Amino acid sequence: MTGAGSGSGPVLLILGDSLTFHGPQRAEPADEPGLWPNVAATALGGRAELVAGIGWTARHAWHALTTDPRVWAVMPRVDALVLAVGGMDSLPSPLPTALRELIPVLRPDGLRRAVRAGYRSAQPGLARAFAATIPGGGPVALPPRLTVRHLERCRQAVLTIRPGIPVVAMLPSVHRAAAYGEVHAGRAAAERATRGWASECGVALVDLAALVGEHVLGGRGNPHGIHWGWQAHAAVGAACADALRPALGRARA
């Protein structure tokens, strides 16, 4: 859970999806200095406390915040909250999320493997078909109204314990993943909802698409088309630090 950085500066609690810990070739340990949470923390002279998982939506972040005792342990020392979730919420999910998340627990093993392989094979075509025929592009991993509901729950919960700390959230990134049929029809609605919530609640935003769009869509990220190379991690980390620096400076003053 603990990332890299100094022990004397601000502590950043980062609730994230795999974009926080996946590099150009593989998922990396949380203390890998090149990951953007650690880039941001180092730029601010502090450290990152990373709580994240593959495919996490805002609902997963809320669940971790309320059930993981490791998060409770660090909460009294948190100086800033970074909500680096919400982007995966906007990805196509032809099978309802609740059913899709049951695949790993199917038994026997042969059934689980067959269902997983069948879903992975069908998902790209279904995503393209839904995007072409259903208004709004079809179902996504988590609807925007639920994304912002869980983001707000996370914000309120942390600020109850650490009132006045700055909060930063992320606008959805972009992808070119064959696994999703290169479909991202839900992104625009997710961005609108996140911008509206952030404006209402005074949350600073980092625009991931503006920072990494050319990098990802130009094929310079991970070969599967979602995760980033180190150049993009550096850009996002710097932008996150820039978003936090004024508020952290005021708090210290």
UniProtKB/TrEMBL annotation:
Keyword Transferase on entry: yes
Gene Ontology molecular function: diglucosylglycerate octanoyltransferase activity
UniProt keyword list: Acyltransferase, Transferase
Top-level division of the source organism's lineage: Bacteria
Keyword Coiled coil found: no
UniProt-listed SUPFAM superfamilies: SGNH hydrolase
EC number(s) stated in the UniProt entry for this protein: 2.3.1.273
The protein's name: Diglucosylglycerate octanoyltransferase
Classification of source organism: Bacteria, Bacillati, Actinomycetota, Actinomycetes, Pseudonocardiales
